[in-house]
Amino acid sequence: MATPDRPPVSETARADTLFRQGVAAFNGGDFFDAHEYWEDLWTDYHLPDKTFVQGLIQLAVGCFHLTNDNLNGARGLLTKCLPKLEPYQPAQRGLDVTALVNFVKHSQEQVNTIQACADFDWSHRPHLTLGEG
What we know:
single chain; mainly alpha; two-stranded antiparallel ribbon
């Protein structure tokens, strides 16, 4: 419901806001929050790229597991997200999906060789930049 000081927000604008909030949270290392924004988008809206958004959710949760000392959880989510992201290469929603896929592949190699989440090398995490498309 609109209030005098706040005009109604279109569904498209709200969906775009949730997506952007997820991107900002991911870039800030707030992986749980990124997952929450993208999950709200995924569950509340009819999306033509629903599988892509689900892949982002799984990626964010996998990263969250790495920060929460859950190596097995990270392994599982990184495995699940890859086939959901790969078909959207090279880009989707303005994001460089190829860079995301490369990060996931590199991360999978790491989580299969490290003994503790503290040993994970975050230097390959891409900064998500919203471009065209």
